[in-house]
Amino acid sequence: MINTLIFLVALLSIIVIVLTIMVFAMARQIGILFERISPIGAMINDSGPQIGAASPSFDLTSLNGGDVKIGYKGDKSTLVFFLSPTCPICNKLLPAIKSIQSAEGSWLNIVLASDGEATKHLEFIEKHAITNFPYVLSQPLGTTYRVSRLPFAVLLNSEGVVLAKGLVNTREQLDSLFNAAETGFASIQELAKQHTIS
Question: Please, where are the H alpha helices in 50-117?
Fold first, then answer.
């Protein structure tokens, strides 16, 4: 009986040691993987207003009440977030949008944009408790920025100049728009490429 217990304890000790070694080996491999894969930012499209160019101006009305001006000079930058009630990724990013509004509201206005019939959008606004965001329906707005897939975001500075834009499927890609504005590079890929050259 005692010999069996000693054998089992020894066997368990060996298993624990092997598992510990495997965890360290996997952690090392994950570290190597992160070094090899450069970070991916928003997927930029080259059509529509170019980065660094002035945005066309829009006078719109919010479904939540009030007028919305996009592309005009103002006291804050503007993030236009294109979404749809039927887009599951858009729904998943709404908590991130709320978080960004709370953290960056001192210098940033967020406008939610879509198109289509108002009824389903009003239901969507109520369901997700986004009544404190301007929510505009404008097909010309999406056409101007060449929005072909959702979710898509455009960051404008207080002068109405396009700082960054692109398809944003994750919070990281959304944050990359702000990184692009801060660094002056249109994308993380462009920044990585510049560092590789120099």
Answer: 88-104
